[in-house]
Write a structure and sequence with these properties.
By secondary structure, this protein is an alpha/beta fold. The chain has one domain: Metallo-dependent phosphatases (Purple Acid Phosphatase, chain A, domain 2, 4-Layer Sandwich), CATH 3.60.21.10. Helices cover 34% and strands 20% of the residues. It has helices at residues 30-42, 69-83, 101-107, 142-151, 154-161, 165-185, 187-193, 198-208, and strands spanning 17-20, 49-52, 87-91, 110-112, 116-122, 125-131, 212-215, 222-226, 229-233, 248-252, 258-262. The strands form two sheets. Strands 4-3-2-1-10-11 form a six-stranded mixed beta sheet, covered by helices on one side. Strands 5-6-7-9-8 form a five-stranded mixed beta sheet, covered by helices on one side. The radius of gyration is 20 Å and the shape is globular. Bound molecules: manganese (II) ion. Manganese (II) ion binds at residues 22, 54-55, 93-94, 133, 135, 217.
Length: 268
């Protein structure tokens, strides 16, 4: 009779945190939605923390929209992750800044202010990290910064949320159409103002005293060195295009290393 083999498998340490942004989830992008659901089940569930850094939804008309199937499906998928003891944190983007308490309670996420700073000690070295959606750094887009200041005002938000949901959705649809037209008309100009302003980045490093900034928003995934400091830019996600697919996430491993992973097309 064969001797039973004893297999001693060392448990893999849990990654400390995963970071994603700019999924722009919407029912019209089913492959991207499916990739997100797979990402949650396969990767996020194994981490200690999940950070969602803005524009997870293409738009958010208000928490009363949780009665619709799509927002409810996403909230429940996040709920499964938070119920599995993954601390799940949310920073608002420029498209889903109306996400509020009810969505947070339903999905088990914790809403954070933008920017948010935390420290992590990996391999006996403490590093300070700053998380932001990234739109605050795009200071060259003056029209947008005015819009941002206005719409982040509580008075504006309560007046907007007082409208019927149907009206809010029509207004958002109109704004999205206008914004697309505007981008097409002023493509070259828009491309230059859509990126972060270098002075704003330098000021943020100086005022926050962090070594690492992580953000999305610009859809220009990269790692930038700023002297000894690093700035990681997350990509947007799009698994629905025929000719290309996009989507990455960052992992802060338990020993403090930062790794970038990409979705392969047709994630199963
Ligand atoms: Mn954005």
């Amino acid at each position: 009779m064969d001797k039973p083999t004893i297999c001693l498998q060392k448990a893999q340490p849990k990654p400390f945190a995963l970071f994603i942004s700019d999924l722009h989830l919407q029912p019209e992008m089913p492959a991207t939605t499916a990739a997100f659901l797979t990402f949650l089940k396969k990767h996020a569930i194994q981490a200690e923390r999940l950070y969602l850094l803005g524009d997870i939804f293409e738009y958010w008309a208000g928490d009363d929209d949780l009665a619709s199937p799509f927002p409810q499906q996403i909230a429940q998928a996040l709920r499964q992750v938070s119920d599995a003891s993954v601390e799940t944190y949310w920073i608002a983007g420029n498209r889903d800044f109306l996400v509020g308490k009810k969505f947070a309670e339903t999905s088990g996420i914790t809403l954070l202010a933008d920017p948010h700073i935390f420290e992590y000690n990996g391999a006996n070295k403490t590093t300070r990290y700053l998380l932001t959606h990234g739109d605050l750094l795009c200071t060259d887009d003056i029209a947008y910064q005015c819009f941002r200041a206005e719409t982040r005002h509580l008075d504006w938000q309560s007046a907007f949320l007082a409208r019927p949901l149907h009206d809010r959705k029509s207004i958002i649809a109109m704004m999205r159409k206008q914004s697309r037209l505007h981008q097409q008309e002023h493509l070259q100009h828009w491309e230059s103002i859509m990126d972060v302003n270098q002075e704003a980045v330098a000021n943020l490093f100086a005022s926050s005293q962090v070594q690492v900034i992580i953000h999305g928003h610009t859809h220009r995934p990269a790692l930038h060195q700023h002297g000894e400091n690093r700035r990681y830019v997350l990509s947007d996600w799009d698994q629905d295009k025929y000719d290309s697919s996009r989507g990455d996430w960052l992992t802060l491993s338990e020993n403090g290393d930062m790794l970038r992973s990409s979705l392969s097309r047709n994630v199963k």
